[in-house]
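User: Predict the structure for this protein chain, please.
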Amino acid sequence: MPDAPEYTPRSVYTLEPHADFVTAENGCIAIEAIAERVYGKPYSSLRGCQRDDEHIGNDSVKLYELTSDGDYLQALGDLDDAKIYLGWDSRTGVNVYKTGMTELDYWLSIRVADENTPATVEANPPATQDLENAVFESRSFADRIFSPSLRLVLADLIRRGELPRGDYLFRHWW
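Assistant: Here is the predicted structure, written as C-alpha cells:
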C-alpha cells in the first residue's frame, strides 16, 4: 500500500519514582537516582509532576511526549522562558515575578539549613520575598515552596544527555 503512513516505532519509558530495581534497559528509569546524580537534590524535591496537572489523582499515569523535535523544543523553550511567580506585592498593587533564570535554576538555588549554614527564611515567607538562594529550616519547607514541572525537568535531563529522547509515562502513587 503506497499511500499507507510509514510506521515509526517509539520507545516509551516508565519513570518509576518508588521502584528500586529498574533500569533504562528494561524500559523503566528510576528518576530519583537521575535527579540526585544530576541535580544533587533528593527526588522528593521533584514532586512537580503534580504541578503539571493539579487534578492528577493517586494511582494515575501521566504521559510526557518528548519524542518529536516539536515536543522537546517546546519543553526546552518553556523551561528557558519561565518566569517565577513570587506573589502579590501589596505596596505596589502588582504581581511580582522573578525573571533572568529558569525555574530549575531557581529551584536548585534553594537549600536546607545545616550545622554550618543557618536558615535565612521562615517556614512561611512573605509572598513577595525573593527566595533565590534561600536557606530553609527543613527539607519539607524547601520542597513546599517550589516544585518544578516534571515535563520541563525531563527536557532538561534530555538536553544534559542523562535521558534518551522518547515518550515518558510517569506513575503517580501518592
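The mean pLDDT is 76.
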